[in-house]
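Newbie here. two chains, one complex. Structure please?
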Amino acid sequence: MIFLELFLTFFKIGLFTFGGGYAMLPLIQSEVQLKGWMSQSELVDFIAVSESTPGPFAINIATYVGSQTGGILGSVCATLGVVMPSFIVILIVARCYEKFKESRVVNGVLSGLRPAAIGLIGSAVLTAAATVFIPAEPAPFLEVITSYDFLCGAVIFAICLPLILNKKKKIHPILVIALAAALGIISGYAPLLFA
Amino acid sequence: MKEKMRRALILFATFFKIGAFTFGGGYAMIPLIQKEVVENKKWISDSDILDIIAIAESTPGPIAINSATFVGYKVAGVFGSFCATLGVVLPSFVVISIISVVLREFSSLAAVQFAFRGIRAGVLALILKALISMYKQCPKGAVSYVLMALAFVFAAFTEINVIFVLIGCAVFGLITSLTAARRAEK
């Protein structure tokens, strides 16, 4: 039953997402990629889509995976699943949040989860790097790092990174994504011009 | 009762607006929520909203959903939290439903594939930035470094489900902080 499976999978993802955002990527890989609902590069591509559309990443990806695997009803089930744990937990915590804030157990658990989230984002960096630099078909190392695709990826990354890390002038991520897309199109068609 | 219904409707509209106009996820929503709920609508006091955000960050689930549910509950009870959450989810849901159809239609075009090849390099830079800023915010210490390293290695290089890694880190953090507190009391 695909709808129940979508609901339960995203319920699990919602329940184990802390702080949100990219820390949930390895979780999505564990749960969604292994089920074959989404490939690694599709996941990285979707990050760009989610950054360029309104709304939180968790909702966006639930809706997307749901609709790709089960149509409209699938996206309803997945989205409901990812929202439900938040909804239940907050309704409980809202009644006694003074206690929650000062609870030693809660603070202890968080002192373990905060660094864990950083480790998970580190792993997400590797995943994204793999989709940029490692070709789909295995090839010798030297051949890979001297290939045209590898060089284009490295150049586009080297252009985007300082723009994103720039503190003086905040550049919106959407603009960087648009620039990366334009550079991707140019570098993709360039060899055809000279062929 | 009527007043509650009216408030719930305004909650829905307010969070729909917040959901529709924030790009880039939960953290981007926080200033907008503060502005709407504290300054414009005056539903919640300045210090309460800070508590709400702190709790939204430390409970499971996306921050946007957590804070919508919490604010909704404070303003108009359970029905209020339902309306606020529905409001914040709906814009994403509609936009992505449309986009997923469009992506399916156009993803085989060469230009689109080239664009995404470039985009992946840009996304790599975005995630790297998230890593750097999260690292800066995290309290440092021996236990933290060990947990960061363990979570990274297990998530990146093993097939172990990330859920177990998270549970392990939570238990480890709980034990070390409780023993540290006990030692401090002695």
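Moderator note: Chain B has three domains: 2-106, 107-137, 139-186. The mean pLDDT of chain B is 89. Thread marked as resolved.
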